[in-house]
User: Fold these one by one.
Assistant:
Number 1:
Amino acid sequence: MMSSIELAVTGRMFHAPTPDRLETIDGVVTVDTDGVIADVVHDATSPTAIALVSQARKRWRLLPWERLLPGLVDTHIHAPQWPQLGTGLDLPLENWLFDRTFPLEARYADVGFARDVWEHMVPTLLGLGTTTAVYYSSIHEDATRLLAQRCEVSGQRAYVGRVAMDHPTGTPEWYRDESADVALERSRRSAGEVAEIGAASGLVKPILTPRFIPACSDELLMGMGRLADEVGAMVQTHCSESDWEHANVRQRFGRSDTEMLDAFGLLRAGTVLAHGNLVSTSDAALIGGRGAGIAHCPLSNSYFANCVLPLRRLLDAGVRVGIGSDVAGGASPGLLPQCAHAISVSRMLEDGVDGSIDSDRRGVPGSRIDSVVAFHLATAGGAAMLGLNVGVFTPGSRFDAFAVDTQRSASGMREWSGIDDESRVFEKIVHLTGPEAITSVWVDGRLRSGTAAVV
Ligand code: GUN
Ligand code: FE
């Protein structure tokens, strides 16, 4: 009988199935012809492991200084902002949007420009281990279609959303949908096109994307809630990001972003709320209750949010959380740097930042997270929020993964014998992996970036 095992991977692997558990697998993982993990065996020398490896059509043995990790799930990224990565960060959010971001996004009316950017961005992100990305596109249907096609061709798992925004003062007249009706029509059509592009592989899906409440009329927000019901697509938007944004919504409605998104039918299972820094305890209960989640964008928040996400409080309240790069509010692509930022901002929240205040009143006790929590959120946590069957190495999960060569990094990462145990190697990978150390990236069981000695 022909084996259905397509690939057997032998070596050392890490995953974080829960926020408090790092598991090391020193053994064999097999992947079937559909890209789904079939077996996980913890001892490569066991008879079971040897039999599985011998049945596999292809074999891949990691080097002793390589580790395999689940692919990274970037739950919040603005594709058209790629060309302004690393710039404009001194501006407050509202000025950054109107003076830098909207003019750049308006340029995606030019499909040639859009194609150039997507061709540079998608392979770069894949190379950094971003196997899933939840994208905001621009308001343009053509550019959005091209982005979905680029993800499909490159083999990146993706949610792709045409941005809807029509508010007469919350958007500039040169970058907006002409009316709520036009926005809804374009969003419906774009979601259909994206769904069609991704139908064959199952990798690419549409996501409805009302930009944020300040950029959308009541009519548009209400219509997007109805559209989500109609087409059954997930929703993404920004929520309680900064003082300015939060106050804008409070002034307009006398209620919080979360309450209003719920009133508009946009707080749904799988809804991705970017930032969420200013959500209250009751907002958190509502988000958790609806099965929505928060994309934690720690670096972007450091520039634009005026505060640190109360991550521990949200996790304790049962809110689903993933990690987002928020390119280009976050000035760095890839999610391992965001894991490090999530850890460091959690320490600042815990200890406080103003040394002139007594230490017992300076911070928020119990706020810190470690590398395992951060990595869990960047993989299994983000996947759970999106309802994706990725992010862990367990039988039945889809095989999205990246390999790190700990001896290749230009960052100073190295395993020191007699000093580094596996948990220290994991910490080093989270903090020190440079792009050059990511040697291969896999989505749905197939090699999508880099090289691997598969025989
Ligand atoms: N709020 C609305 N649009 C944006 C955006 O593009 N980036 C960020 N960080 N916040 C937003
Ligand atoms: Fe954003």
Note: The chain has a mean pLDDT of 98.
Number 2:
Amino acid sequence: MSTATAPAVAETTADLRALRARLPAPVALVPTMGALHEGHRTLVRAARERAGSVVASVFVNPAQFGPGEDFDRYPRTWDADLAALAEEGADAVFHPPVEEVYPPGAAGVSVQPGPLGSVLEGAVRPGHFAGVLTVVAKLFGLVRPDLALFGEKDYQQLVLIRAMARELALGVEVVGVPTVREEDGLALSSRNRYLSPEQRATAAALSGALRSGAAAGPRGGGAVLAAAREVLAGTPGLVPDYLELTDPDLGPAPAAGPARLLVAARAGSTRLIDNLPVELGETR
Ligand code: PAF
């Protein structure tokens, strides 16, 4: 049995505000949808290192799921989540019911992501990033954190949240934390549990493609994409959706210097995404 001290839990915004008032600054926020794994634990540990207090939220946000997506079957593992947050030393957890975050009768104001919200993931998941930004803005307003931490695994989400904090002057420092991976390279994700053993074996090729691409960086962007494509094409069972090379802010890739390689593919009905930083060399 764990000897960790249980964090204080708030299920209402009123309780959260009361809890927040007692927390020593600086306050770090780690927003999650629960089903916590080592990637989330790493976020809480990174928050601990940087802040006087750590608040985590556990809320499966209906606004970021489209029709036919996995909102209903998204894993909900509250007891295990609370135990993990206690072990990692979170001070407080916000675990609200849906009506507390989206009260009936609200005017329905939302945060729009701009053009970056309709490319890559946004092109296949219309409305997804408006749902993410709206709930994150609400969490920022409720917790009033000094900093908030997000995994680089959802890279487009991280870029958009950073842009929101900057462009709406929210006064929150947005910190990206590198992706945590299984031994074979698969990025940790709460959705990995949907994979059958065969799909799980196939899924490792996604990070393999990114690693091959990144290794070709000194030979330029064309070589990066070709190397990654070759791995994807040689992996039956993985159906690629996109493979894109961009600059670190998701704009056009530079000829040389820091870039980002992003991929999405399906293994059966499970959609997987991953990305890596790439250093591009000048092609001669
Ligand atoms: O990355 C997630 O788990 C979610 O998109 C977030 C940031 C908690 C918003 O619901």
Note: The CA atoms of residues 184 and 204 lie 6 Å apart.
